[in-house]
Amino acid sequence: MNTLCFKIASMIKRANPQETSSIEIMQYSLSIILNSLLIIFISFFIGWSTGSIATTAIALFGFAILRFISGGKHLKSATACNIISIILCSSLPHITFLSEQHFILINMFSLIIIVIFAPNPDANVHVPLRYYPLLKVLSVLMVSSNLFIQSHVLGLAFFAQSLTIISLPKKETVK
């Protein structure tokens, strides 16, 4: 994917060298766009193949919107992110063996995690501190809305996303 993004960025730069960003910036931006599209298309294809495209869309966009608002840790590579995201969004609609009590607990755990740790933006995203209270409120409202919506898929997507924002203090090592 990186090679493809580099080739596209190079072609754009050659076509308009004066009014475009650097190849590196365009390559990075294209990488985000193409990786996101890959996750969406493959997840939707799997959802369509299994007859669960609507619930796959709910899982995908519920996870993505909460992630945008609350932040979270990233995996070490785009490939790992793609694989985990596709597996997550494609499998959540098929988790049907949990009871209503399980989903209430899952929603409550998600809400507690969000209240404690949100927002936890990516280090590359420079969100001014003055927006943190708003991001926390939006995250809490989004997760708590599922207590009324009562979507199992949305609850699982919110739970998975809430786990990515947990940030524990690092232990200091004594030398």
Can you walk through the features of this model?
The chain is mostly helical and 175 residues long. The chain has a domain at 51-163. It has 7 helices and no strands. Helix 5 (100-117) packs antiparallel against helix 6. The chain is globular, with a radius of gyration of 19 Å. The mean pLDDT is 92.
SSE topology sketch:
Blueprint: H1 2-15, H2 23-49, H3 53-70, H4 78-91, H5 100-117, H6 132-149, H7 152-163
Task: Give a short overview.
With 175 residues, the chain is mostly helical. The protein has helices at residues 2-15, 23-49, 53-70, 78-91, 100-117, 132-149, 152-163.
DSSP E strands, number:
0
Query: What is the N-to-C succession of helices and strands?
Result: HHHHHHH
Overall geometric form: globular
Residue stretches low in confidence (pLDDT < 50, at least 5 long) are: none
Biggest sheet descriptor: none
Rg, alpha carbons: 19 Å
Mean pLDDT: 92
Tell me the fraction of residues in β-strands, as a range. under 5%
**Helix content estimate:** 55-70%
Structural class: mainly alpha
State the distance separating the first and last CA atoms.
42 Å
Query: What count of helical segments does DSSP give?
Result: 7
